[in-house]
Amino acid sequence: MKRIAEEIDGQHSAYDINKSVVIVPLKDSRFQSVIVTIEKSEKFNNLEGVVFTSKVCEYSQDLNLKELLEENGRLCYSKFVLDEYYLKVEASTLVYSANDALLKEIVLEVGQVADDWENKLTGMDVN
To answer: Would you say residue 6 lies in a domain?
Structure first.
């Protein structure tokens, strides 16, 4: 992920061997943090997968869930999820099928979508 962060003029920090953060630079001097985790789970049929996650905002009953579900249908890799009382953007792929080009596309989409919706829903740039 470090190489991909360099390619997009972003920043990379490793937490440990399975978890890191990529700071994705966006237009208008905005940035979005994308957490990248390698994990084995039932979701991946107990194979290793790469999960990309970025916070949008705290969950509120005021969120238009129908609009978010409709947006899910327009996205290529990403989807909206509710996790720990936060609305997040998430994408994943299996490790064995991933290559640098795919990982770069995914991290860029997750960062851009999360930032777009963070801005739309809160008017701020905090994540």
So the answer is: yes
- Vertex 28, ends 89 and 122: CA angle to 5°? 45
Structural domain contains residue 127? no
Quote the domain boundaries for residue 71: 2-122
Sign for the CA dihedral angle at 48, 4, 19, 126 comes to: negative
Residue with tokens 């998430």: 90
Read off the pTM: 0.93
Over residues 58-103, the pLDDT tens digits come to 999 999 999 999 999 999 999 999 998 999 999 999 999 999 999 9
Domain holding 6: CATH number?
Answer: 3.30.1460.10
